[in-house]
Amino acid sequence: MPRATDGKASKPTVSVVIPAYNAAPFIERAIRSALDQTHQVAEIIVIDDASTDSTADVVTQLSAADDRVKLLKFAANSGPSKARN
User: For the chain, what is the total number of helices (H) and then of strands (E)?
Assistant: First the structure.
């Protein structure tokens, strides 16, 4: 963790990765929870694993309001391991 020159430690920034498949009912709550954490969030990357519901639409709306929210969308479902990696 970098140290500030005034002797105070700075808060670390984090990137949050959220793999999602048909998560429309839950994804907004997950993103808002990540944004509300005590660490400064640099970015939230949601990987939509070819959902058949409105997961991508929900994330797109949230990213329009907060540029830290980013959406990556798979064309074919590949499972949670590939989405996390």
Answer: 3, 3
Instruction: Determine contact, residues 47/23, Cβ cutoff 8 Å.
Output: no
Contact criterion met (CB below 8 Å) for 75 and 44: no
As a 3-state breakdown, the chain gives helix, strand, coil percent values, each rounded to 5, of 35, 30, 40
Question: CA separation (Å) from 81 to 25, 28, 31, 32, 42?
Answer: 21, 22, 20, 23, 23
Q: What is the pLDDT of residues 39-60, one digit of tens each?
A: 899 999 999 999 999 999 999 9
pTM of the predicted model over 0.85? no
Q: Per the structure block, which two tokens stand in for 80?
A: 């949670």
CA distance 23 to 15: 20
